[in-house]
Write a structure and sequence with these properties.
single chain; three-stranded mixed beta sheet; 0% helix; globular
Length: 94
């Protein structure tokens, strides 16, 4: 059974799911018009779940080395704020 790749680090402090540079969403989806985190929600109030470490639910980046049938096979990913978007920095072109 495949395990979801964990989000190891996220510096997107303006996201409702971010607390202390950790993502507390249950899961995120990555992809679309680039390796963008689609769980990003800009909010001052935090929606933090205790003891939750987010994982990658689906990766829509077909050209990523870590994409296997829409599942992320990386041991973990990093998400960083770049050019006004939350970006998966683990994305690697095949």
């Amino acid at each position: 059974m495949m395990k979801m790749s964990e989000i190891l680090d996220c510096d997107v402090e303006q996201c409702a799911h971010n607390k202390d540079e950790k993502c507390n969403a249950l899961a995120i989806n990555v992809g679309g018009s680039g390796p963008v985190c689609h769980a990003f929600v800009k909010a001052a109030a935090k929606c933090v779940q205790p003891a939750v470490t987010a994982g990658v639910g689906a990766c829509k980046m077909k050209d990523c080395e870590f994409n296997d049938c829409l599942s992320c096979t990386a041991s973990g990913i990093d998400v960083h704020w770049r050019n006004g978007q939350a970006i998966c920095d683990t994305y690697k072109l095949r």
